[in-house]
């Protein structure tokens, strides 16, 4: 039986007179790749922002591993085991690739302020461990050779991989990826697909927003479809692809 990891119900979010999310409910099981699709303005990123603490929902319920995360701050969400990337890349562009990942890793550090100031042996050992773990993550996503390069000098595809490495540095149980394949060519997209499958196979559940319908249909275990802030369909890719409501609202025609 599938193990429930994340569950939301009755989620509503308004911006003035705009009802961005209306009574949204979904559940994500441990070990799956769960996709979220819909036309522009459907509320996908708004839902991501609610799940990661950037937006506070107006109503609803939100639990992760059975813990209530409704209206919790982003740092609490990260510490609970949810990490994310952004639709628009948000790296520290003047820092090296290694330093970017190390920043993400610090959410799991235990050094005290005094230890950081006086650099006692315990603190130095922890810093060495952070560096080694960060280098290992750069290797994991395939950009170890760029460790000492400034993030701004990396290719677009490698910057996307760096964002994923930084998110993984927080030791998430759920990795939320907001359009990671945007702007990528066919080979980069296929390589990204393989990376996401590797991440899932290594025990990290994935929540994915993506406009590349072909990628989503070939990658996700289940997919939910939003339209005007409402969930209009949910299920395995084949069922979603052939749902008349989805075809009318988003796909236009059944994708091959």
Descriptive report:
The chain contains ten helices and ten strands. The mean pLDDT is about 90. With about 260 residues, the chain is of the alpha/beta class. Helix 3 (about 95-105) packs across helix 5 (about 120-140), helix 3 packs parallel to helix 6 (about 155-170) and helix 5 packs across helix 6. It has two domains: about 5-80 and about 170-250, Rossmann fold (3-Layer(aba) Sandwich), CATH 3.40.50; about 95-160, no CATH class.
List the helices and strands and how they pair.
Layout: E1 4-15, E2 18-29, E3 33-37, H1 44-51, E4 59-64, E5 67-68, H2 74-80, E6 82-84, H3 97-105, H4 113-118, H5 121-141, H6 156-168, E7 174-178, H7 186-201, E8 205-209, H8 213-219, E9 222-227, E10 230-235, H9 237-241, H10 244-251
Parallel strand pairs: 3-8, 3-9, 6-7, 7-8
Antiparallel strand pairs: 1-2, 1-4, 4-5, 9-10
Helix pairs in contact: 3-5, 3-6, 5-6
Sum this structure up briefly.
The protein is an alpha/beta fold. It has 10 helices and 10 strands. The chain has helices spanning 44-51, 74-80, 97-105, 113-118, 121-141, 156-168, 186-201, 213-219, 237-241, 244-251; strands at residues 4-15, 18-29, 33-37, 59-64, 67-68, 82-84, 174-178, 205-209, 222-227, 230-235.
């Amino acid at each position: 039986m599938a193990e429930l990891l994340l569950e939301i119900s009755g989620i509503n979010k308004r911006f003035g007179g705009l009802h961005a999310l209306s009574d949204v409910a979904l559940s994500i099981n441990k070990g799956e790749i769960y996709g979220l699709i819909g036309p522009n303005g459907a509320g996908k990123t708004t839902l991501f922002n609610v799940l990661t603490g950037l937006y506070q929902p107006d109503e609803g319920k939100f639990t992760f591993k059975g813990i209530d995360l409704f209206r919790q701050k982003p740092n609490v969400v990260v510490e609970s085991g949810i990490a994310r990337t952004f639709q628009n890349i948000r790296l520290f562009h003047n820092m090296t690739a290694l330093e970017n990942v190390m920043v993400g890793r610090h959410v799991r550090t235990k050094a005290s302020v005094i230890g950081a100031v006086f650099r006692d042996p315990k603190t130095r050992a922890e810093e060495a461990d952070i560096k080694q773990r960060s280098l290992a993550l750069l290797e994991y996503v395939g950009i170890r050779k760029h460790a000492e390069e400034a993030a701004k000098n990396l290719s677009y595809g490698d910057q996307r991989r760096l964002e994923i490495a930084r998110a993984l540095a927080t030791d998430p149980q759920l990795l939320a990826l907001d359009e990671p394949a945007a702007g990528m060519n066919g080979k980069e997209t296929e390589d990204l697909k393989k990376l996401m499958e590797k991440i899932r196979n290594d025990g990290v559940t994935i929540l994915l927003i993506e406009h590349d319908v072909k990628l989503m249909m070939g990658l996700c275990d289940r997919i939910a479809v939003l339209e005007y802030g409402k969930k209009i369909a949910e299920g395995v890719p084949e069922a979603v692809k052939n749902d008349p409501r989805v075809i009318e609202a988003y796909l236009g025609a059944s994708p091959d």
